[in-house]
Design brief:
single chain; about 400 residues; alpha/beta; Aspartate Aminotransferase, domain 1; Aspartate Aminotransferase, domain 2; 2 domains; 7-stranded mixed β-sheet; 4-stranded antiparallel β-sheet; globular
Length: about 400
């Protein structure tokens, strides 16, 4: 009887620790009255970031047009706004027919992989990665093959290693730029190298660009679709991060590049989109206003802006630590922080994350949650107010000091 309701075997290799055991324990502690500083998720709303008012008004004013299903690809004004953004970036030969609106990028990651993969097909994914990519490949009966983005190399991938991982079963390569969890931003030269490999081996390039305008100092975001011509490129973005509208659940994927022979694949995407009827309609009415209006994110990421100053607080906290290291994030809203295992040889990221939660009431994501083969890193979001982050680093240093004293 104990096996009567056992879960699917497909879930054996699937994990999403960002909302896993640690998050569940944090909820238990909150129910007991403890205040938990939740740094595990890039969710702007709880940290006081508001969706731009113009987007809220656009959604409200169009509610009467949002009560029924829309086209499975999304409403035309939203898709056309995405096309216009692509054209402004120099990506031509795309139309609204090449845009799919989804319930966030998360749903579209699943749909694009489901439409492509046969059992055993391989997809190249960075390590560390946003773990949904690995999970979605696995759930769609593919095989996730990780290419390393090592801390020693500034979390940049190595083109020779990527090429050595390509086999006759490889169908696609995932690029996350700006990167989650590391904050790395890739150079034009590196992206061009990945594009040439994809074209040579006819791989679909899945370019996760949800943090596209969230870059700092002299970092430059290069849209992958501007570099891929002789293979298919799927570019993902949405309202969640740059526009601080996670709850609207609006993302999009744009197909570009070698479209002439991609129609069967796009037809498969259309079928899968139809099966789920459509994505959230009210939120889609904010897309045109978001992409065509004032880009408030630019004020947040420049010196004096809250995201910039929070990032600087993280860098200052690491610099003041006896135990921590970090590659300064050039983009996104995260920092991937390392712990010196020469000073703390027994350090384990999962134990640390639980101890930090239980004794200092701070919730972080262990580095191994992001499919790394090393266990001395953890990820935090840089969304809190700088004063909160400064306090958090005091708590982290105290715990690491306790570890050092126990050695």
């Amino acid at each position: 009887m104990t096996d009567a309701f056992k879960p699917s075997q497909a879930l054996r290799e699937v994990r999403y620790e960002i909302r896993g055991r640690l998050a569940a324990r944090a909820q238990e502690l909150e129910r007991r009255g403890y205040e938990i500083v939740q740094l595990n998720i890039g969710n702007p709303g709880p940290f006081g970031f508001r969706t731009p008012e113009t987007m809220r008004l656009a959604m409200i004013e169009n509610l009467s047009s949002a009560e029924g299903y829309c086209h499975q690809k999304g409403i035309f004004p939203a898709r056309e706004a995405v096309v216009m953004q692509q054209q402004d970036r120099g990506i031509t030969h795309v139309s609204a027919e090449h845009v799919f609106i989804g319930n966030g990028v998360s749903e579209l990651i699943d749909l694009t992989l489901r439409a492509l993969l046969d059992p055993g097909d391989e997809v190249l994914i960075p390590s560390p990665d946003y773990p949904l990519w690995t999970a979605a490949v696995t759930l769609n009966e593919g095989r996730a093959v990780h290419y390393n983005c090592r801390p020693a190399n500034g979390f940049q991938p190595d083109l020779a290693e990527i090429e050595g991982l390509i086999t006759e079963r490889t169908r696609g390569i995932v690029v996350i730029n700006p990167n989650n969890p590391t904050g790395a931003v890739y150079s034009r030269e590196l992206l061009e190298g990945i594009a040439r490999l994809a074209e040579q081996h006819k791989l679909v390039v899945f370019s996760d660009e949800i943090y596209d305008q969230m870059v700092y100092e002299d970092a430059e975001f290069i849209p992958m679709a501007t570099l891929v011509a002789d293979s298919l490129c799927a570019s993902f973005s949405g309202l969640s991060k740059v526009y601080r509208a996670c709850g609207y659940r609006v993302g999009w994927v744009v197909f570009s590049g070698e479209l002439a022979h991609a129609q069967p694949y796009l037809d498969a995407m259309d079928l899968l989109a139809s099966l789920r009827l459509c994505s959230n309609v009210p939120g889609q009415w904010a897309v045109q206003t978001a992409l065509g209006g004032f880009q408030s994110i630019r004020e947040l990421v420049r010196p004096g802006g809250r995201l910039y100053e929070a990032r600087q607080t993280v860098l200052d906290g690491v610099a003041a630590s006896q135990y921590l290291t970090v590659v300064p994030p050039a983009g996104s809203m995260y920092a991937f922080i390392g712990v010196d295992q020469q000073r703390l040889p027994d350090f384990d990221d999962n134990r640390f994350a639980m101890d930090l939660l239980e004794t200092h009431h701070v919730l972080v994501a262990p580095g191994t949650s992001f499919n790394t083969d090393y266990n001395n890193y953890f990820r935090i979001t840089t969304l809190p107010d700088p004063a909160v982050l400064a306090d958090v680093f005091g708590r982290i240093e105290a715990l690491l000091g306790e570890y050092a004293a126990d050695q």
